[in-house]
Amino acid sequence: MPWKENTTMSQKQGFILQAKGENRNISALCREYGISRKTGYKWLKREAEDGVEGLVEHSRKPHHSPNQTQEHIEERVLAVRKEHPAWGGRKIRKVLLNAGYGQVPAASTITAILHRESRIDPTEAHKHKPYQRFEKERPNELWQMDFKGYFRLEAGGYCHPLTVLDDHSRFLIGLRACANERFETVQTQLIRLFRQFGLPERMLMDNGSPWGDDRNNPYTVLTAWLIRLNIAISHCGPHHPQTQGKDERLHRSLKKEVLRRYSLTDLDESQLAFDDWWYVYNYQRPHEALGLDYPGSRYQPSSRPYPETLPPVIYMDGDHLRKVDSAGRISFANRVIRVGKAFRGFPVAVRPSVQDGIFQVFFCAQPVAKIDLKSNNC
In 3D, which of 342, 333, 347 has the Cα closest to residue 375? Predict the structure, then answer.
C-alpha cells in the first residue's frame, strides 16, 4: 500500500509533539511508542536541528544542480502532481522550492504545464473561488470537530471519518477511522487526542449526533463531558454549516486526496491511509491560507493536560443550586425550566444576569439555559 512508508513519519511526529509537552517522562513515552531511549533522543535532536525534515530517513542531499534543465523541472512538476493529483500550481511550486530545486517557474507557469499535459480538469478548475478567511489568534483557542460523510468498506461495513482541526493553524489534530458515530466511540477517540495534544479552550461542532440534540436542548452526554473538562462548547447555527468552513474545506481535500484514490478494505487499512495523509497534510502539503506554509509550522500542543479523573462540579458562593431531574428539568422561582437531559443528576447554578429579571443557568462554566421571569419563555 502506498501509505505504509509515511505511517512511521506520523508516529515520529506524534512522539515529538508529546515529548515537547510540559513535564513529559521521555523514558515512559519511549516505552509507549516501542522505541529505545537512544532512538527517542535521536529523533528529538534531529527535529531540533533540522525541523520535521530531519526525521526523514532517506538522503537529504539537495536536489539543486546547475545542470538542471527546463525539461527536468517539468518532469518534477508532473511527478508531484501524479503523487498529489489535487494539488495546483502554487502548492507544487512551494514543494519544489522546499526541496531545493533551482530555477523553479512561477505558479502560473506550473499551472500552464498542468493544463498542457491535461492534468487539470477545466470544469473542476472553475469551481475553486477565493473566500474570506477568519481565524483564532493562537493554537488551541478553538478546535473544530465533525464527521466526514461515511463510506462503504470493501470487506463490508462502513467507515465514519472523525476530523478534529485547530482553527488557528489548520493543524489536523485527529483523523480517526470510526465504525460509528456513537458517544462511546467519539469519547474514546477524543481521549486519545487529548492525551497527545492537551485540551483546547473551546470546541465548535454542528447540531447533529452525538454532540447536538435539537434547538431547544443542544447539549448531549458527550458535550456535558467536554464541559466538565473545562472546554467551552459552541454549536454552529442550524442550517449554517459554513460556520465550520475550515473543517468542511478539510473534508473536500480528504475526499480528493484519499477517498477517491484508494479502495479501503477495513477500518485498520483506513486508519493506515489516514495516518499517512495526516502527516502529509500537516507537514508536507502547503496551505494557501497560511501563505503556503504547512500547518505543523504554526501549531504547538496545548499546555492544558488531560485529567485522567474528571474534576468535581463546583460553583461560586452565592449561586442558586438546583439538581437536574430525570426529565432534564429544574425548578426556580415557582417555574419549571428545561435544562437538558444531558445534565440529569448533576447540580446546575442559577445566577442573575446584568438584565433585571433574567437569570443564566450554568453547568460548570458553560451557560446552558436562560430564565426570563418577565415572560413565559424559559
Answer: 333
CA distances in angstroms from 50 to 53, 55, 56, 162, listed in the order given: 6, 8, 10, 32
Residue ranges of the chain with pLDDT lower than 70? 1-10, 22-23, 52-54, 56-71, 102, 117-136, 213-217, 237-244, 290, 376-378
pLDDT digits (tens, 9 = 90+) for 121-146: 655 544 444 444 456 678 999 999 99
Burial, 262: exposed, middle or buried (Cβ in 10 Å; 0-12, 13-18, 19+)?
A: middle
Tell me: cis bond preceding 210? Omega within 30 of 0 counts.
Answer: yes
- Cβ–Cβ < 8 Å for 206, 146: yes
Rounded CA separation 49/123 (Å): 44
Integer angstrom CA distances of residue 312 from 194, 309, 320, 351, 369? 19, 9, 17, 19, 21
Tens of pLDDT, residue by residue over 256-295, are 889 988 889 999 999 999 999 999 889 988 877 767 788 8
Amino acid at 199: L
Taking the CA atoms of residue 78, residue 82, residue 83 and residue 85 in that order, the dihedral angle to the nearest 10 degrees is 110
**Cα separations (Å) of 160 from 71, 85, 151, 184, 243?**
43, 24, 7, 14, 21
Q: Which amino acid is at 336?
A: V
C-alpha cell at 262: 484508494
Q: Which grid coordinates are listed for 282?
A: 500537516
Q: Which residue has the cell 519544489?
A: 96
CB-based contact 235:212 (threshold 8 Å): yes
Predicted TM-score (pTM) of the model is 0.68
Q: Which helix (H) or strand (E) holds 145?
A: strand 143-147
**Which element (helix H / strand E) includes 220?**
none
What's the rounded Cα separation, in Å, for the pair 196 and 14? 8
Nearest CA among 155, 144, 125 for reference residue 265 = 155
358-363 vs 366-372, strand pairing mode: antiparallel
Nearest 5°: the CA angle 61, 170, 195 is: 90
* Side-chain-facing half-sphere of 378: CA atoms under 13 Å: 19
**Nearest by Cα to 33 from 10, 2, 55, 6:** 10
Question: Is the Cα torsion angle 40, 41, 44, 49 positive or negative in sign?
Answer: negative
Residue 318, CA distances (Å) to 25, 345, 349 in order: 42, 21, 9
Classified as helix, coil or strand, 195 is helix
What pLDDT score does 13 carry?
A: 75
